[in-house]
Amino acid sequence: MHKGASLVKGQIEDMKTNQAPVSVDNPTAVVVDTNAFHQGKLTQGAIRSLETLTDLGLHVIVPDIVCRELASHAWQDYQQAKELLHLSDIGVEGIETAEKIYNNFVSKIRGTGASVGESPHDFYRNSIHAQILRTPPASAKGDVTTGAVDFMVYCHAFEATGRFATVAVVTSDKVLRNSLAGKPGIQVFADFATVRKGGVSHMRLGIQEVLEPLSYLLSKDFQENISKEVLSSEPTPLSVVGVGDILRLNETDLIAYVDLEVPTYLSSTGEFLGRNVERWQVTLAGASYAIGNTSRISTDAVSLWSPDIIHIDDYLSTELSMIPSVLRPVPHSDFVNDQKTPVTYSDNTGSNVEFFLGENCLASVQHSQFTVAHEYEHDGDKYIENRLYTDISVTDDGLKATRLSKGMLARLVTTKALELLRQCYED
What is the value of pTM for the model shown? Predict the structure, then answer.
């Protein structure tokens, strides 16, 4: 047996024998809107719904602004009830402010295993702008423009797609649902019940299920077949640099989000211009994985990382988004269990980030920040601007690479993890 495979043999055996009664796929994020809660109230039934989703292995995110709305509704109800209780000479001490209700709700939500998503300053700013400009899901309701909170939930959903390949958004708000419908990586559900019935987890592939189709997507055969679909002229060599995810379309077919490095040429002269990194949605039909429908989702005109990458978080976010969610590394602090998050990585606050499958180190990323002074002149005056840069390198089996192509880390982590898992299951 391969040495690396033997180190995770025990882990894989546990995954085979200790199967949970529900799907044992990777975590899927579920972002919950205020309108998912009946009448916007955090009831005991809602608490049980959140617990059910976390028991399914889903990463449930309730944005802090949603908690604020839930607390606001409860505070308004309390103010009305407080007057009636006072007339009945019933004490109402203990809840003097809406903030206490908010803190209590946050505690109860976290107690279900869900997380409360913090809204950065940009979310607030962009949401106010969206409401002013009536950018969906903000909209006019009568003579009033509303929707800043809906836009913030919208922002939380898209932020989650950077960490999870598929994000379920639970909301009954029609405008928010319409704004999210059809967005790559996002599924919309009207209520908790439709998620509990397996709407999300049915799309997921477990670790053992994903090994064969993933191997095909990284193979030379797929590269040649997709070239015929992507390139309109005579097929030119392109390469698969990442696989964003593999989802179940139905009982026989799959949908894959594949990142390709595609050569581009000047249409008039045929002059080679460079390479793009494009994400394509590809349907794989049946056991043969025959390529069906294809559509390009996005294009990045630069296939190489800049020598001076702005921040390590930007680099990791992009690279990890090119790894199938069933293998997508999570920070050690977010580790759930071996069945759901087999690949982890160390904290990136130091100078080295290491990626692991069990005890096996798959790759490491070294990074360091430095400041460069830039001089410029304006109206005859000279100015100096200090700009912060990050120097990043990737180490694979002792070999260090400093000229980084986009998807290099993703492909390295994916192929090494795939090799270990395949050998373990075959043995």
Answer: 0.58
